[in-house]
Amino acid sequence: MNILFAETLKKIRIDKGISQRELAERMYVNRSTVARWESGNRLPDAVMISRLAHCLGIDIHTLLSAAAESDDAPNVILVDDKKLFLSGALPVLEEIMPDAAITGFTRPSEAIEYAKASRIALAFLDIEMGATNGLDLCRTLLSINPRTNVVYLTAHVEYSFDAWGTGASGFLLKPITPEAVRAQLKNLRYPFSGRGSNE
After folding, report:
1. pLDDT tens column, 19-60
2. pLDDT of 48-58, one tens digit each?
3. Which residues are paired to 75 by β-bridges?
4. Distance from C-alpha of 167 to C-alpha of 31, rounded to nearest angstrom
5. Domains contained in the chain, CATH given
6. For 89, how many CA atoms within 13 A lie in the half-sphere containing its CB?
């Protein structure tokens, strides 16, 4: 459920003096669809959010930012083929994002299956992982959910130029530090809440 989006939409609609039925007619949807959006039972996709903003005469970012703030714990994944790195990096991420559901993977194929079943807010991806590299994994994850933030992890700075062409949000050199991760979180393409009360 997304109560923040629901409350934001309902408040804007009421402030504009528009009934659910009127908004539904403008949107070319059933009134029950608008009711589900306003109850938090359903979240419209990006196309419908854009149409909503147009019909309500507001800036789309007002609705997009509300939609990005989910009541559920955001899913964060860390993909690296080295178990030793995972065991050291996961506690760093958990410290910085206590409200996120953080999962580590050593196999890109497992991360892809997880992404198909769960909406990924942020993916930390190693670039060199045997047969599959992080650049290809990034493209796959973004094809599943274009709003996934991707931050590359590597010990090889020369990969940074290739990394920028894949739609990633950032780049971290190993080993990761809390300060470096915090800096990257400020520059995500699609910000989300997962950092507790001390964000």
Report:
1. 999 999 999 888 989 999 999 888 888 788 999 999 999 998
2. 899 999 999 99
3. 101, 120
4. 37
5. 3-68 (1.10.260.40), 75-198 (3.40.50.2300)
6. 29
